[in-house]
Amino acid sequence: MLLVVVLLALGVVAPGTMPRASAAGAQSCGFATAGTGTYARTLCWFDLSGYSAAEATSPAGQRLMFALPGGYRLAATLTVSGGPVAPSALPTYSAAYLGNSGHYTGVPGRPALYQTANGTTTVATLTDIVATDASGAVVKGYGLVGADVESTDPGESIEWTSSSPIESLTADSSGPGIGNACGGGYPGVGTRTVRCVGRTTANKSGTPILSSEDPTSFTQRMVGGGRQAVGFGVLVSSLQMSKKVVRGFPGDSFAVSVASSNGAVLGSADTRGGTSATTGEITVLAGARGSEYTLREAATSGLESNYDRSWTCTRNGAADGKLPTGDAGGSAQVHVDVGDFVSCTITNTAKAATLQLVKHAAPPVDVNGNGITDAGDTIEYTFTVTNAGALALHDITVTDPKAGPATCPRPTLAPGESQTCAAQVPYVITKADEANGAAVNTATASGLPPGVTTEVTSNPSSTRTPTETPKPALTLTKSASPDDPEAYTAGRRITYSFLVTNTGNVPLNEIGVDETAFSGSGVLSTPVCPVTTLAPGAGTTCTATYVLTQDDVDSGLLHNTATAHGKQPGSPDPTTSNPSSVSIPTPAHPAITLVKTADPTTVERAGQSVTYRFTVTNTGDVTLRGVGVDETRFTGSGPAPEISCPDVVLAPGASQTCLGVHRVTQADIDAGSIENTAVAHGTAPRATEPTTAAPSSAKVTADRSAALALAKSAYPGTVAAAGEPVRYSFLVTNTGNVTLTDVTVTEGAFSGSGTLSAISCPAGAAVVPVLAPGQAVTCAADYTVTQADLDAGRITNSATAAGTPPGGLPTATTPPATAVVTASGGAALTLVKSVEPATVDGAGHTVTYRFAVTNNGNRTLTSVAVRESAFTGTGAGPAIACPSDTLAPGQAVTCTATYTLTQADADAGSVTNTAEATGNPPQGDPVTSGPSQATVTVLRRPGLSLVKSADPTDDGHFDAGQTVTYSFVVTNTGNQTLTTVTVRETAFSGTGGLSPLSCPGGGSTVGVLAPDEQAVCTATYVLTQSDVDSGHVTNTAVATGTPPAGTEPPTSDPSTAVVPTPPDAALTLAKTATPGTVSAAGQQITYAFVVTNTGNVTLNPVTVRETRFTGSGAGPVPVCPGGALAPGRQVTCTATYRVTQSDVDAGSIGNTAVASGTPPDGGSPADSKPATATVHATAVGALAITKAAGPVDVNRDGSIGAGDRISWTITVTNTGTATVGEIKVDDPSAGPVTCPGTVLAPGQAMTCTVLPHTVTAADVTAGRVRNVATATGTGPDGKPVPGGEATASVPVVPVLPPGPRPGPATGPGEPPHRLPDTGVDVGRQLALAALLLTAGLALCLAGRRRRA
């Protein structure tokens, strides 16, 4: 057993003697490992290594001093007597609770005093306990605590005795914490003596921990069968304050501190720019009623306004709603009780300081006008800066290494605010940008949060402006007309054509043609060009003329070569074309080419237009006429495109582009491509057949995409009750560009507990046969909500859709689409509490509380319970029992509890009880009903009676000088406790003076008188001669008392005593029996006999005798307390009786008694009137019958068949609590039944027999012999008692025909027939029994006493 000293320091300096100095100096104390017990962090165990047996067992004891955390010290004198002890570590042994299995483990040193011998009794007492603080001042308000360090087993007990009341603490987080430690009882909690009695030797699942506040002495008495242990410790309180910083700004620091109620700082810590700090655990003595402490945090560097603050606190490792939480401010007060460990952490999370930057590039300025973006051109940049955080930012700047400085409208941005900044000068594109193909530029923005010196930088944002390098180029194609031999005559004018084309990427100016070689004898005119500027891709035809001379004709050939030239803007260097030559006359060489293209070459939807371009070029040397284009192959689904050409005449070298347009159809998309082949034709002069170009083809590819979209919805989206319908809609859309077939919707995950209907699509079909691109259909399914769905809180449902695309493409499948139906409402409970009766007339009445708990939500609730939240009764709170702990919505249950009112309740006038119901919904936190209150009112009836008597009262003692003793028996006849009960004389005829009144306790009043309690006050008087001369002395008095506040004080009726008075001996008797009803033999009845002396003489002895008793057992023997019974006094005698079966059968037990008392003169005893108590028996009779078959293989053929015999055994058992007689067993098919008797006591059984049955051919035909038996009887009350019926059945088989029979085999692989099993396999049972006996013997031999 552990004796723990718990210091509940009040913090008040008290006068007193300082502790005597310790010769050995202060000892240490240590804590258990954190988390191993409720007080692991606050219970500091004394290291008793310095224990001295010589000192502790001496009369003076051993003076010990211990240094406690926080600078406190505690001194006490330990006195040990009886069995010897020695210091020991924890655990003391393997089956102890403390120190084992994670219960207060890791305690340093040797905190236990362990008995060193078995079967001894040790008494350990602490006295002269003094605690001081760090300044040496004595502190009061501590408490001593006792707890079991070892274990209390059968035959062992622990008893604590204290000068102050002892209360039970918990050893762990739930319940009283004693587990199986005190299996034999744990009485006395709340008194000055508590006892723990052992019962089991199993490993302990708890230990008692007891506390007594500020006692003058505290003793623990250990009675050990084996060995026991004692230890000491002190229970303190502690606080801890911690700081966490999340995403803190550089340089910011925070301090935390803990201060006492007077402002003294007990501990502090600073993060010093880091992310955490803690004060560590600070030990305090919180005082008997606890103390207030202030926890505070503050920024020592930086601004607190830049952070979000959150408090998180625990008390003894668990959340406590009374502690700060959330943003509780920079400081908070916490209340700390004895043994508390309060830990708080303030987390400061930096508010977001975030900048976002988006950079924009304006279209470039073509400075050199060459039509492209190249070196020298300029770009203007702007920057959109947004404060995306929660803090204002100042000193906003934009940094762009290429663009240079930027100007912003405002230096400060509030949270969520944006502004546009601009580069101060345009950016000039460089040759490097031109070479790279683009001008790429990246910028960032920055700003400063309040009170912070480290900049916040935005994301980098870039722009990319494509650039180009100038590439000037020209081509020249020269031709002459006419050029045929027939036209080659003198005087013929020849026209030269020069087709000049700009094939570069920049415009060219000053276009012209230069003749570089000419063989004619005449003069060629200067070439004339219609335009002198050509954009990229543009062309112009320049011309010149020449008149043939005879010399030219005579030479037979005229040759001419030329080049074209031009200049790009800004460049001094000319661009020159290729040389082009022509000679005439020339033989006709007609030729034509065709290049066919399609734009676009890829299509993705029906309705798009494809433009076909047919570039027809006269590649011959003669002019072609009738030029056109013919389609020769077209795979599109519609008609081939109609082709139009701008001209039907094409000079040598000339080209033209013909056009055709085709509108794409869905069939084209589904096919995947459109192929087209064409030829060009033209007719040369004097030719009879056209010249045809080689075929040219173009292919347009369909960018096919097979895709589906599924949108799932549910209506309604919120449900509130089981049975509500929900319709799920599935909107399926073909989001691809090809037609889909056989489109289906498939359910995936479904959390509903019911059955979802099949999915129905348009026209009731399960499949959508065809779904064109862009087309949508809606399918549907229905569902009915269940209670389980409501309990789950939601119904989730996912589905996918799939469709088959044209050949070659994979199946189109959607991702799952989900619809969620939310359960509205929620969990709710109501509680209506009532009490019956609501009004009682005093203590001892038992009231019944009823708690009507109703689930008025729409969620099933489990673990439904009722808990008391306030109870003004002074007795143990009522234990509430509920018939069910699960409630469906709308369901109700009535829980009940009983309570017996105490006298304190009666004195208070009422007992008020408030309760609330709780339950656990399927999800979320438990729900709690509103409080419901019920009040029991006690009808206050204060009352007193007074019986006054005198001794002696006879004539023989009525002489002068005789002392007469007056007795005043005051009885509290009401139902309220009375205080300051006094007796007041109202009339006295004596001529002398009465002595002062003497009442119990030595005063003239009775301090406290409970209902039915009596007190006897006395006074004396010495008779005078005048009294004798008058012939008598008369004395009358009344009694008064003070009831609880609010009630009129009662006054008794007057009571008079006259001396002398003839003696009158008289008694009354009131008899009761508990319980008033019994149901089985063996139950015990306790009889109480209240005997009251209603005469005027003292009776001695007083006895009670039974005059009538109907029980069948030995009559109860009343036992009365010894001593005389004065007039007006009463005494309670008791007797017990154990019920017999005959009593139960009789239905009741009657009992009548008479009280007797002998008067002082020794005359005949006075008898009371008879008093009777009757106990009723409520027993019932019940019968059970079983029947067993015993087949006998008479012919030994291995089976039960015709001619074999079956014996029957019938067992009848009385399963009730009353004797059953006239028992009869009927077995119509088996014949008469013989039983050994006709009466069975409760629990008794008898076996009846019947003649054996010989198996007949009819039985074989039926396949079995079946037998039914019934039993009946009569109860003690004469009513019939049914016994039910019992059936036995035996299978039978036909006889096999004669012949060799290797055995009565059945089917393949089956065993042969054998006798039916109607009992058990005795061999197996005996083997099993032997095995179990052997194992049990081994366990017994292996068992040992748990400790030496």
Automatic annotation (TrEMBL):
<protein>
    <recommendedName>
        <fullName>Gram-positive cocci surface proteins LPxTG domain-containing protein</fullName>
    </recommendedName>
</protein>
<feature type="region of interest" description="Disordered">
    <location>
        <begin position="442"/>
        <end position="487"/>
    </location>
</feature>
<dbReference type="InterPro" id="IPR051172">
    <property type="entry name" value="Chlamydia_OmcB"/>
</dbReference>
<keyword id="KW-1133">Transmembrane helix</keyword>
<feature type="region of interest" description="Disordered">
    <location>
        <begin position="1148"/>
        <end position="1170"/>
    </location>
</feature>
<feature type="transmembrane region" description="Helical">
    <location>
        <begin position="1326"/>
        <end position="1343"/>
    </location>
</feature>
<keyword id="KW-0472">Membrane</keyword>
<dbReference type="InterPro" id="IPR055354">
    <property type="entry name" value="DUF7507"/>
</dbReference>
<feature type="compositionally biased region" description="Polar residues">
    <location>
        <begin position="573"/>
        <end position="584"/>
    </location>
</feature>
<dbReference type="GO" id="GO:0005975">
    <property type="term" value="P:carbohydrate metabolic process"/>
</dbReference>
<feature type="signal peptide">
    <location>
        <begin position="1"/>
        <end position="23"/>
    </location>
</feature>
<keyword id="KW-0732">Signal</keyword>
<feature type="region of interest" description="Disordered">
    <location>
        <begin position="1033"/>
        <end position="1057"/>
    </location>
</feature>
<feature type="region of interest" description="Disordered">
    <location>
        <begin position="1269"/>
        <end position="1318"/>
    </location>
</feature>
<dbReference type="Pfam" id="PF20674">
    <property type="entry name" value="SpaA_3"/>
</dbReference>
<dbReference type="InterPro" id="IPR013783">
    <property type="entry name" value="Ig-like_fold"/>
</dbReference>
<dbReference type="InterPro" id="IPR047589">
    <property type="entry name" value="DUF11_rpt"/>
</dbReference>
<keyword id="KW-0572">Peptidoglycan-anchor</keyword>
<feature type="region of interest" description="Disordered">
    <location>
        <begin position="912"/>
        <end position="933"/>
    </location>
</feature>
<keyword id="KW-0812">Transmembrane</keyword>
<feature type="compositionally biased region" description="Polar residues">
    <location>
        <begin position="912"/>
        <end position="921"/>
    </location>
</feature>
<dbReference type="InterPro" id="IPR019931">
    <property type="entry name" value="LPXTG_anchor"/>
</dbReference>
<dbReference type="Pfam" id="PF24346">
    <property type="entry name" value="DUF7507"/>
</dbReference>
<feature type="region of interest" description="Disordered">
    <location>
        <begin position="560"/>
        <end position="587"/>
    </location>
</feature>
<keyword id="KW-0964">Secreted</keyword>
<feature type="compositionally biased region" description="Low complexity">
    <location>
        <begin position="1033"/>
        <end position="1050"/>
    </location>
</feature>
<dbReference type="InterPro" id="IPR048834">
    <property type="entry name" value="SpaA_pre-album"/>
</dbReference>
<feature type="compositionally biased region" description="Polar residues">
    <location>
        <begin position="454"/>
        <end position="468"/>
    </location>
</feature>
<keyword id="KW-0134">Cell wall</keyword>
<feature type="domain" description="Gram-positive cocci surface proteins LPxTG">
    <location>
        <begin position="1315"/>
        <end position="1348"/>
    </location>
</feature>
<feature type="compositionally biased region" description="Pro residues">
    <location>
        <begin position="1294"/>
        <end position="1305"/>
    </location>
</feature>
